[in-house]
Amino acid sequence: MTYRLTYSFDKEEVISEILTCESESILGAYEHAIQYLEKQYGPAKILTMIGLSILLLDFVGKKMVN
Q1: Which has fewest Cβ within 10 Å: 8, 22, 27, 46?
Q2: Distance of CA 5 to CAs 1, 28, 38, 63, Å?
Q3: Total structural domains within the chain
Q4: Model's pTM, two decimal places?
């Protein structure tokens, strides 16, 4: 599944990235996003986030599993 991960640690900078994971579920995309962020910034930095969103990009025509 391909998704757009958008997140912010402060009010001045919003970061957006396109990522791909093997999961075909929304929960799987969130788990992948958190693992990605932990690798990039470390667990302590994630706790300071003020925003996180995921937009699924390639789910049209697929059965979504929650």
Answers
A1: 22
A2: 12, 13, 14, 21
A3: 1
A4: 0.78
Residue type, 52: L
Residues 6 or more apart whose Cβ sits within 8 Å of residue 42: none
* Tokens representing residue 24 in the block: 């075909």
pLDDT tens digits, residue range 4-47?
A: 999 999 989 999 999 999 988 889 999 999 999 999 999 999 99
- Could you tell me if residue 61 is inside a domain? no
Whether the CB-CB separation of 53 and 7 falls below 8 Å is answered with: yes
CA distance 1 to 18: 11
Tell me whether residue 35 is exposed, middle or buried, using C-beta atoms within 10 angstroms of its C-beta: 0 to 12, 13 to 18, 19 or more. Answer: exposed
Task: Answer whether residue 44 is part of any domain.
Answer: yes
